[in-house]
Structures are given as structure tokens and as C-alpha cells.
Amino acid sequence: MKSGRLVPLLFLAPALFLFGLLTIYPLVRVFLLSFFYTEYGFSGASFVGLENYAALLGDSFFRIATWNTIFFTVTATASEVGLGLLLALLVSKRFPGRFIVIPTLVAPFVLSTMVVTAIWRAWFHYDFGFLNNVLRAGGLPPVAWLFDPDIAIFSLVLVDVWQTVPLTFLILLAGLQSIQPEIYEAARMDGAGPRQILLRITIPLLIPHILLASLLRSIDSFKIFDKVYALTGGGPGQATETLSMYVYRLGFQFFDVGMASAAAVIMIVIAGALAALYAVRIMKGESHAG
Amino acid sequence: MKVLTSALLAGALALTAVAAKAETLVIAGRDGGYGKALSLAVDAYKEKNPDLEIERLELTGGGLFEKVTIAMREKSAAYDVIMLDDPWAVEFMAKGWLADLDALGGGVDEDFVAPARAVSRYPVGTGPYYAVPFVGNVELFAYRKDLFEKFGLGAPESWTDVVKAAKVISEKEDGVSGVVYRGQKANPIVTGFLPILWAHGARIVDADGNASLDSEAALEAMNLWLELKSYAPKGVETYNATEVRDALMQGTTAMTIELWPAWAPSLDDPSASKVPGKIEIMAAPGQVQGPAPMLGSWLVAVPADSENKDRARDFIDFLTSPEMQKKLALEVGTPPTRASVYKDADVVAKYRWYPNQVAALMNAQPRPRITQWSKVETILGDYLQLALIGQMAPKDALAEANGKIARALSH
């Protein structure tokens, strides 16, 4: 090997070693374990071929968890990016009190998820919760936020939106501030109205930032665990059971590590496909820009 | 010369450090009231053994199960004493994860109540002791004496009486639900259902170790349990211990089908309860069979891979001694596992329901002694909740649960 190639490799070696140890090795191990019946690792494991995958696909709870995860990911990501964009557009212009509004909007993001879920669990209480008190005060009937199977997943989305909109808001605000003011001036001189400026200039120029915010939020939403664990435990029934909860129960409550690995492999495939989709879009954008 | 002196000095320092390293006992236990009890016992034990270091982990039930199970599977010597819920103990004993306490000496005397002693041995009831009962938990039943008297109702003698009383009170007493229970998935919902299931003569696993929930008796039990929901507060599907206790102490419910001894002292505390002295505590009623209160003992054991077994055994003897059991009962309300402590005049004077509690404990039924219990409990909990929220017919829920339990038992 030429020394010109060796030097960069030497510098990259520590990072590659860590990547191999902490990412590639666990992935390969999980993939291999998914073909075994095992309660823990390979010791005492028995090879079962594709049996774990067949059992998963035949399990209605797994199918429900997959659907719930996809539904949550799409709904939460769309809401967070949409609301983040709206807030960024509202706050991007200078106005009195802006220096108070921005930190206030960002505040929920600095709270830990356990604190957030504790707050919302109290707010969601059917009899004494803040939300139902507001509804009652407005003459409306209270809502079974966490125990109506048709509503519980939306309650989880609401909590996720409340906590993570600040992230999408900040990404999109940064994007808005990176657009050159001259472009707007030129558009206005050409007679473009506010609606045209928003739809033909601002949004198209924000696409890479919207994609980035969507990628970050959808990957994070796809692996949702903590909020479900703390707020509903996957219930009522299976209404909020997600893939992460399903894998956790198989792995750490049942110690059915083979099945848990098979479910994790399916999760990785879906999440990988999702990430690849965004990555291709983002790279396409970059190559056009370049 | 300087080099030699330095080397000798370094060697001496290293030897001193090794000699000075204190003996350490690591205990993995529960949080909450049981954590307080362990903390009291640890402080008292340290007073007797000032040179001993004790590290104590306070964990939730689920957290403790995960941590100790993983440590046992990895053959780790991380813990010297572990707390175990009695159904977990079967797997721990069967897989050789616990030290044989008989071999370590000290014995387990007959003052410990018989059902708790039986689940501390493997094979159950006959083999050597692998654990010692620490918390004498038993699932109890509680009802509002004043409301029962107001509506001319006697203490419930069957689950049918419970349903009738729940109906009467929820219809006639404003702001009071007929009954309350834990409806949350997994352990909470199963725990409330089991005494009803057993009282109907049904079993999750039969004597031959086969899944047996697809029976008429189980269906009758399920239908009765579901009927209770009509008289329970809205949202009971998400209720756990806090909500049940709140409903009792706020006086907003007439009965609970499940009350744990650790919850009981606050019910008589006027600073915490709006109905002190008005709640009667007893064993859950029977139905086609006599009362079937569920045993919920917490045990203490020494992992087989502990490097400090003798010290661990000594601590366990101290923790479960009659003196410490009495102290923990009086100071923290920890339910004793020794019959003699239940007869102690000071203890009975403080806790008026102890005679009923010990009677329930003596007749308590353990959960199935199978190594797959945590899996079986989760499966049953899932289907009970699907039936409770009306997303599955009771018969279908039992049939599907039975099928999954059968598969779980086959591994």
C-alpha cells in the first residue's frame, strides 16, 4: 500500500475500531442470534433457522406493534416538522420580546423524558388532570387521554410533539436565517407577494433543513420507548405497544433473546430503509447544489 | 539504595492498601417501603459489624428482576444478597443460580409461616432451602365497613356478594365507586384476577404443567371479574397501586379486591386518610372453593457465585430474626414472615388487621411454580386487558392466552 493511503487509514483506525466494536459487532451478533432459540447469548443456544421470524410474523401483537410504530413515527414526525416550521416562520422576523419567546419555546427540550412524562401523566388524569379541567371549564366532556384505545396513541404523539418541537424549530429557524435577504428583495422587486415568496422561495430553499429535521425526528420516533413505558406501558390493550417495547419485553422480561433479536433485525431493516430514503434525498440535493 | 528504599516503601504501601480494604457485602433489593426496611436492617447490622462495608441497590420490581437475572446468567459475583419475588425464585433455584442455604448452615426454622417456607425450597416444599422469607406479603381484600352497614350488607362471603355489594353502593352512594383494582397490564392486572380465578376452581397451569385456561371455570371467573368494571372508576384500566390507595384513602371507593399489607397502615392514619378506622381488611372471599389469597412473599437469597457467602448468610439470619422482623413491622410496617411476630402484643396493638392477615397468609396460594412465570404472567396480563377494554371477547381472550402460554411452557 502506498504511504499516501496508509496515513489517512492510520488516523481513521481508532474510529474504525470503535465503529466495528460498538456498531458492526453488535449488529452481526444480533443477526446471528436471530436464528437461534436462546435465553442469553450463544451458550446453550439451539439453531432454529427462520422459526423466530415465522413466529414473529404470525404473532398479531408483533403486527400491531409494527403498525403502531409506523403510525406514531409518521404522525409525530409530520406534526413536529410542521409545527416547527410554523413556529420558525413566526419567530424568524424580529419583534419585541423575541429574546424571551425563543428560550420559552425551547424549554421543553431541555427536560428529561421522565420529567416530561411525569408532568403529562398528571395533566392527562381523567378526574383531576389539567387538560380535562380545562375541557370541563369550557363546558366540554372530559377525554380518556390514556385509557381510550383510540386516543392513547395520539396522547403519546402530543407529548412527543411538546417535547421535541423545539428541535425541529431550531433546525428550521437556522435554515431560515441562512437564506440570503437579497433573494427576498429581488422577489419583491419582481412583484412576488408573501404567499408566493413562502411557497416558491422559502419552502424550496428550506427543503434540505426540512429533510434533516424529518430524518432526525423519524429515526428517533421510530425507536420510541421511554414515553410509552412511562405513560401507558403499551396499553390499553395493545393500543400503544411499539416495536421497542415489544423487543424489550421479549429480551428483558421473557429472556427470549433469539426472538428479540429477530424483532430487532426487522426494526433495523425498517429504520435503515427510512434513513436511506432521506439520505438519498439529501445527497441528491447536495450533488445538485454542488 | 534510593531505588531499593522506594521499591520497599511502594511494596509496603501496596500491602497496607490490600490489608486495609474492608470486607464488602453487596445487596440488591427493592425500593419504597422494602427499601426502607432493608436500610434499617443494614444500619443495625453495620453497628454490630463496624468494619464491614455494605453497598445496597434500591430498585423497582422490574429493574431488580432484570439486573439480578442478567447477573446470574453471566455468573457474576456482583451481588452477595438478593431480594426475590417468590415466583421468580423457581427459575433461580431450578437453574442453580442460588447457594444452598442448608449447606451454608443456620437452617430455616419452623417459625416462618409454612406457605412462605415451602416456596423457599427446591423442589418446592421438599428440597433444600435456597432462600429465606423476608416479607410476609399476602393479597388481602378490603371494604368500607360504614358503607356496608349503611346499606345493610354483610361482609362478602363470595365473589358474587362482592359484585352485588359493588352494584348497590355505586348506585346509591354519590361519589363512591363500588370497587377498585389495578387494571394496568402485566403483573398488576394478573394479581387482581388470580384470587377470583382460583376461587372458581380454575388454574393457569394444571398439576401436570399444562396450560389450562380454556376451561368453563376460568370463563366464569373472567365474566365475574369483567362485571366488576361496571362499578369501578373510569380509567381503572390504567390504575396501579397509587391510584388504588388514593381511592381508598380519599373515601371514593367501597372495596378493593386487592390490598397489600404495606398499603394498610396509611389507611388508618388520619393525616393521610379521610376514612381512618372505617376500612375492614380480610382474606379475599371464595366462590366454588374457599378463599384463595395469593402469596406474594419476598425472599432473600445468596447467589451461587457470591464470593462472600458466609457473611451473606449471616446478614440474612440477622435480617429475618424475630427481633428484626418485629422492629421492621413496627417502624416501617413490613409484613413479618414469622408466626411469632404476628402474635406479638405490640405488633397486634399497632395493626388491628394482623390476625386476619396471618390467617390469610397461612392459607395463601403461591403462583404456579414454573420457571416461565414472568412470561406467562405477561401473556395473561395482555389478554386480560384486551378483555377489560372490550377489544376481545372473554372466551377468545382466554383461548388465545392459553395457546400462547402453552407455547411458553414448551421451552
Automatic annotation (TrEMBL), chain A:
Organism: Rhodobium orientis
Record GO biological process: transmembrane transport
Membrane topology designation: Multi-pass membrane protein
Transmembrane segments: 6-25, 70-92, 99-123, 151-176, 197-216, 257-280
Keywords noted in UniProt: Cell membrane, Membrane, Transmembrane, Transmembrane helix, Transport
InterPro entries: ABC_transporter_permease, MetI-like, MetI-like_sf
Subcellular localization(s) per the UniProt record: Cell membrane
The protein, known as: Sugar ABC transporter permease
Family under the similarity heading: Belongs to the binding-protein-dependent transport system permease family.
Domain ABC transmembrane type-1: 66-278
Gene Ontology CC: one annotated term: plasma membrane
From TrEMBL, chain B:
GO CC annotation terms, alphabetical: periplasmic space
Keyword line: Periplasm, Signal
Signal peptide positions (record): 1-22
Family annotation (Pfam families): SBP_bac_1
Compartments in which it is found: Periplasm
CDD domains reported for this sequence: PBP2_TMBP
Record InterPro entries: Bact_solute-bd_prot1, SBP
Major localisation: periplasm
Similarity comment: Belongs to the bacterial solute-binding protein 1 family.
Protein name in UniProt: Sugar ABC transporter substrate-binding protein
Organism: Rhodobium orientis
